[in-house]
Amino acid sequence: MRERDWHVAADAMRERLAAADEPFMTGMTRGTMRFLLFAPRGIDAQRPHTQDELYIIARGSGWFVRGDERIRFAVGDALFVPAGMEHRFEEISGDFETWVVFWGPDGGETA
Asked: Is the pTM of this model over 0.85?
């Protein structure tokens, strides 16, 4: 079944991610917006991104490091990271998954 450009089914994304060699799968894009499912196993090796991003925790728990801050996260939490900031997930549970939304210009939006 073909996905609509305005609808992403979570189970379909999980199936596609399980078959991928990457820890993420893009669900939809529009303009500068990208919507992904991210599920690293073991170590989160991501680097700072050029766009602002929002994580919405779908499954699992662990610790989130953002710059010099470190907090526990759980299902339903939302985490914002401005463009260019160091960040990563640590001590993540084996079922960890998060939705990710990237948007805006390179360098991020300004207040």
From this structure: yes
